[in-house]
């Protein structure tokens, strides 16, 4: 065999080995999703707003991908435990993460406890929904309007307390923004932390705490049953679900507008083909009539932002939350 033939044989042999090594990788990417369950980790307890929207999305994603998609609740530490779990997960498209705006806010408050970067350690897939909050009080509180509650709090702030399902949650920051705009000293108004909306609402109904801002999904049934009194809602306009309840803006807080928003992520370094497939499936799910109808009935609007736009939105919302935290002087003791 000549030197030329040996070189050619060596060249083609190396090319064959490279081809064989690359084939499984290409096949794995092209075959996603394989016959394997896709798990969406929700870092909050079942029954709350985040869980409700996540399960609605999981149902539609399962239909779009023709694949089993399940929700795994991993609550604790205002969502930090479940979030850190996904940050360390394999970026293979089978472990996803669903959360609300607390994803951007909690790390600003729990700086010493956060073991992940909310931007660098995740691949945003898309924003899927947003919703206003119901500002409600226990019926025994002698306030039927935001103005009346403001006066009560100014007269005797330590007598009344607010509930929150998590420090850094939309409800927590909404209350902080309200207190700042109302000229209240937020540090003198007790804010009680609960592990989820369900126990917070239970104590609010029982009178152990007195007021709360919370998504429609968990608070509306309590308002409709008369167990809570809605004094306002935080959107720019009134919701058709509570047409007789004014917005906080209408109550005289002209700059007040607050929404919780919800999105889905994967661990960082998700392969581009898998991201593209997930982003497309998420968009189709969010824009489907069943999803929009279901969310509207729960007090949410189906709103899709793609991966790039969602990432920009997270950055801008993080800056907004930092400004609220700084102005209110919120610290975690």
TrEMBL record:
Database matches in PANTHER family: BLR1237 PROTEIN, TRICARBOXYLATE-BINDING PROTEIN
Source organism of this protein record: Hylemonella gracilis ATCC 19624
Signal peptide residue numbers: 1-28
Protein name: Uncharacterized protein
Gene3D superfamilies: Bordetella uptake gene, domain 1 (3.40.190.150), Periplasmic binding protein-like II (3.40.190.10)
Keyword set, alphabetical order: Signal
Lineage, opening ranks: Bacteria, Pseudomonadati, Pseudomonadota, Betaproteobacteria, Burkholderiales
Keyword flag Signal: yes
Family: Belongs to the UPF0065 (bug) family.
InterPro entries membership: BUG (IPR005064), Bug_dom1 (IPR042100)
């Amino acid at each position: 065999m000549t030197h030329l033939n040996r070189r050619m044989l060596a060249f083609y042999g190396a090319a064959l080995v490279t081809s064989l090594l690359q084939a499984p990788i290409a096949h794995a990417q092209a075959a996603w999703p394989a016959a394997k369950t896709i798990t969406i980790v929700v870092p909050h307890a079942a029954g709350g707003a985040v869980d409700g929207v996540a399960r609605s999305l999981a149902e539609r994603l399962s239909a779009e991908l023709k694949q089993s998609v399940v929700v795994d609740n991993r609550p604790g530490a205002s969502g930090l435990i479940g979030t850190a779990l996904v940050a360390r997960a394999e970026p293979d498209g089978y472990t996803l993460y669903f959360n609300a705006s607390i994803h951007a806010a909690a790390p600003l408050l729990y700086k010493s406890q956060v073991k992940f970067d909310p931007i660098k350690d995740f691949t945003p897939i898309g924003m899927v929904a947003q919703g206003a909050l119901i500002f409600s009080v226990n019926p025994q509180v002698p306030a039927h309007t935001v103005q009346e509650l403001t006066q009560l709090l100014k007269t005797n702030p330590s007598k009344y307390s607010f509930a929150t399902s998590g420090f850094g949650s939309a409800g927590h920051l909404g209350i902080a923004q309200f207190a700042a705009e109302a000229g209240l000293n937020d540090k003198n108004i007790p804010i009680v932390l609960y592990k989820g909306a369900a126990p917070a609402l239970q104590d609010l109904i029982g009178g152990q705490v007195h007021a709360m801002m919370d998504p429609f999904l968990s608070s509306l049934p309590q308002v409709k049953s008369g167990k809570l009194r809605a004094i306002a809602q935080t959107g720019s306009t009134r919701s058709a679900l509570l047409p007789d309840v004014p917005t906080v803006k209408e109550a005289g807080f002209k700059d007040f507008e607050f929404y919780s928003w919800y999105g889905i992520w994967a661990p960082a370094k998700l392969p581009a083909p898998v991201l593209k497939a997930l982003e497309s499936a998420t968009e189709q799910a969010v824009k489907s009539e069943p999803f929009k109808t279901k969310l509207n009935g729960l007090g949410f609007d189906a709103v899709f932002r793609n991966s790039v736009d969602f990432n920009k939105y997270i950055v801008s919302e993080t800056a907004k939350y930092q400004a609220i935290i700084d102005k209110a002087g919120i610290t975690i003791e």
